[in-house]
Design goal:
The chain is α+β, with helices and mostly antiparallel strands. The chain is 57% helix and 12% strand. Helix 5 packs parallel to helix 8, helix 6 packs parallel to helix 8 and helix 8 packs antiparallel against helix 9.
Length: 354
């Protein structure tokens, strides 16, 4: 468990849950899902001391649920945001053709002066932000404290934005994976047998789109709820509130970019499949055209051989010593002439006809 005190005075890591909140600033409590379940009575008691209210039982169940989609909910004393992350999961098989996606949710309970975040056990988000906030507070320019989050909501939005931006690394993996699949689809000379990989990839894109839609809905509900907050008491509070709106819109814009990229990959995958079958159809047409031309060339030759194979004694050239060679020469001329004719018409070869 990480307990961090933040404010104008800077950054301070606490050994445990304090008895009371500091005179200024706020407290961030970051726990894993297992720690949250084990320390629930202690955390509820601390929240009661600090804020005068505890987490609702339904929201506790939401924070413990590993399969919950991204969503937003609120009470009169805190807001709840559950946000599913999008990162590449460790592959069970080094030769796996489809990237595995980890979509475990991260939960945030945002009080006026307390932020409670519940993370998966393998989530590096908490440790990353602890180090980042510490480095920010110790900035060499002496302005580190002013760059720290001004409120629990501000810190929550920064972490959510980082979760969304972590999709960039996943985007590179997905782009590389789908590019390789598209090249395999375009190679019509090598038959594709593992259609299950392509199906799994398309299902993965559908999953990402569904998760992105849930993320967008949750952040949009957060923005709508932010507009319903009580009016700011002073100019500084009004500026902080406007900063929250800006950060919220920025997170929403990043989610839109993720959705746009996922839909672009989905469209490219569908187009690659259609082009694959179109290329197969074109290759089949080329083969059938070549076979048809060869058949057309040999039909006159079969006719000539059939005529000279009749059981008649008075056929021309049949009793002459040069008859065979004359017939063979005629057949060769007919075959070569038809071949040249079809070649001029571009019925032979793979070049398109003019």
């Amino acid at each position: 468990m990480q307990v961090i005190r933040l404010g104008d005075y800077g950054f301070a890591a606490l050994d445990g849950l304090p008895e009371a909140l500091p005179p200024a600033g706020f407290v961030w409590v970051g726990v894993t899902r297992e720690e949250f379940e084990a320390m629930l009575p202690v955390l509820q008691a601390a929240l009661q001391r600090w804020t005068g209210g505890t987490l609702v039982d339904l929201h506790v169940s939401d924070l413990l649920n590993r399969q919950l989609p991204s969503h937003f909910d609120y009470t009169s004393w805190y807001d709840l945001l559950v946000f599913r992350r999008l990162v590449a999961a460790p592959a069970a098989d080094d030769n796996a053709s489809v990237t595995a996606i980890d979509t475990t949710p991260v939960g945030f309970a945002v009080f006026d002066r307390v932020l409670l975040s519940v993370h998966p056990g393998d989530c590096a988000l908490r440790d990353f932000f602890v180090q980042r906030l510490q480095q920010t507070a110790q900035g060499a320019d002496g302005r580190g404290a002013s760059r720290l989050p001004a409120s629990p909501a501000d810190l929550m939005l920064r972490m959510v934005n980082h979760i969304v931006d972590s999709y960039l690394e996943l985007r590179r993996l997905l782009t590389r994976q789908f590019t390789a699949q598209q090249h395999a689809l375009f190679d019509t000379r090598t038959p594709i047998h593992d259609w299950q990989v392509l199906l799994a990839s398309r299902n993965l894109l559908h999953l990402l789109e569904e998760i992105g839609e849930d993320q967008r809905s949750a952040v949009q509900e957060w923005i709508d709820g932010l507009e319903e907050w009580p009016a700011a008491a002073d100019a500084q509070a009004a500026r902080d509130r406007e900063l929250l709106r800006v950060r919220s819109r920025d997170v929403l814009e990043h989610i839109e970019r993720v959705l746009t990229h996922v839909r672009r990959l989905e469209s490219s995958s569908e187009a690659a499949v259609q082009m694959h079958f179109s290329a197969l159809g074109q290759r089949t047409n080329d083969i059938m055209r070549t076979l048809t031309v060869l058949t057309a060339i040999f039909l006159p030759l079969n006719l000539i051989t059939g005529i000279f194979g009749m059981n008649f004694d008075a056929l021309p050239l049949i009793h002459r010593q040069t008859g065979f060679w004359i017939a063979a020469a005629v057949m060769a001329l007919v075959g070569i002439g038809l071949g040249l004719f079809f070649w001029r018409k571009r019925y032979l070869g793979t070049q398109p006809r003019r």
